[in-house]
Write a structure and sequence with these properties.
Elements lengths: L1 H8 L4 E6 L4 E9 L3 E6 L4 E2 L8 E2 L2 E6 L3 E6 L1
Antiparallel strand pairs: 1-2, 1-7, 2-3, 3-6, 4-5
């Protein structure tokens, strides 16, 4: 539950998230539910969006499980 409340506190703020598997993500928390945090990343360049439209430009929303979060830091 601590991760949930920490994410709520950081809503609409730019953060860096570290997961238990050592990965880091940067972006703005756009939403939080009891299981996931939704992070809007700022990417310049190509990102894969689907099998039919393989590349897009701009931002994307990552869904991260609250159970995999190790740390959240405001940046």
């Amino acid at each position: 539950m601590d991760a949930y409340y920490n994410c709520l506190h950081c809503m609409n703020k730019r953060v860096r998230i570290l997961t238990v598997d050592g990965k880091q993500y940067e972006g703005t928390i756009t939403d939080v539910d009891r299981n996931n945090v939704y992070l809007k990343t700022e990417r310049n360049g190509r990102v894969q969006t689907s099998a039919f439209y393989p590349y897009g430009y701009g931002n994307q929303i990552l869904t991260l499980s609250l159970f995999t979060l190790l740390a959240i830091a405001l940046i």
